[in-house]
């Protein structure tokens, strides 16, 4: 199920480096965020959305739900302006971190949910907020989340959320162009549970057309037990340059092993983000067995040559690149129609830069309609 893969991804991110997973600054991996500096980054976004709400003649009211709260960055900043904030996240590991660094425990609380239904009564909040969170949910879960926000906000209340619409520079490849040969060069095994390792692979363009760089074409991986997915979206490695037909490139892909020990299949495939995994349109992925063991990491030759594996004492894992976090867009017309269908008013749609340079992104201000 999509929600299982989604929850698994964010549970892993929350356990490994929760602050970096919220704000993936490449300079802040491995616990590099100073807590005060991390929390301070929420001041600007909260000021911006408060201005939008004020200009619309609306108010956050006294009780606000922060959906996709992560480590509680925005929840803490919002507490300076309202009486109560309840942060909710699909990952218990994120909620645990949010509780640990909570600056206002008398007015801010955090709770995990199942990814489908928020654990709150109908119309129990004055308003709802969600920034740089829904963009990581698969499309069906995005719609589910918007409907849940509609449900828990009182009539006349306000919903403020950000969603990307579409990649800014994406040119969707044809199915015939999505043909890759993937050769594994080095795969460490065994790997410690929950630990990060690097896979090296050679990717060859076996289509008749050039793959253009800058079009979100990436090497990625899945973890499976037999043929059943355990973690669907894990690492990503970007195509570094245009790749002509017949040309190949060697890529280092950082992967994170599942938390449970055992025998797994590691499957590598190419993906064009927001379009499809290439195996779905006829390309051939590659798969290999990997053993996940407790409290250990595998070491291998830097040159990629296989050698006897040495199991070392467990150490703090280094982090994968931020490309491991998927992004999904929602067309603005769909958002308009959804809330119109629910009897709510789309008050404002403002372009923003929250999804980065690769995506068109918008902040929405919705006035919750009366109960039908």
Oligomer: single chain
User: What is the number of beta strands?
Assistant: 19
| Alpha-carbon distance between the two ends | 31 Å
Mass-distribution shape? globular
Estimate the mean pLDDT confidence: 87
What is the gyration radius calculated from CA atoms?
22 Å
Backbone structural class: alpha/beta
Query: How much helix is in the residues?
Result: 10-25%
Q: Could you give a short account of the major beta sheet?
A: 7 strands, mixed
Counted by DSSP, the helix tally is 8
Q: Give the strand order of the largest sheet, numbering strands 1, 2, ... along the chain.
A: 3-2-1-4-5-19-18
Q: Please write the string of helix (H) and strand (E) elements.
A: HHHHEHEHEEHEEEEEEEEEEEEEHEE
Strand fraction equals: 25-35%
Low-confidence stretches: 298-323
Task: Characterise the protein shown here.
The protein is 21% helix and 34% strand. It is of the alpha/beta class and 372 residues long. Helix 7 links the parallel strand 4 (125-130) and strand 5. The chain is globular and about 60 Å long. The two termini are 31 Å apart. Mean pLDDT is 87; it is low at 298-323.
Question: How would the blueprint of this fold be written?
Answer:
Layout: H1 2-16, H2 18-22, H3 35-40, H4 43-55, E1 63-67, H5 73-78, E2 84-89, H6 92-100, E3 108-112, E4 125-130, H7 139-152, E5 153-167, E6 180-186, E7 191-192, E8 196-205, E9 217-225, E10 228-231, E11 236-238, E12 248-256, E13 262-272, E14 276-277, E15 286-293, E16 296-299, E17 310-313, H8 332-341, E18 345-352, E19 359-367
Parallel strand pairs: 1-2, 1-4, 2-3, 4-5, 7-15
Antiparallel strand pairs: 5-19, 6-8, 8-12, 9-10, 9-11, 9-13, 13-14, 13-15, 16-17, 18-19
Helix pairs in contact: 1-6
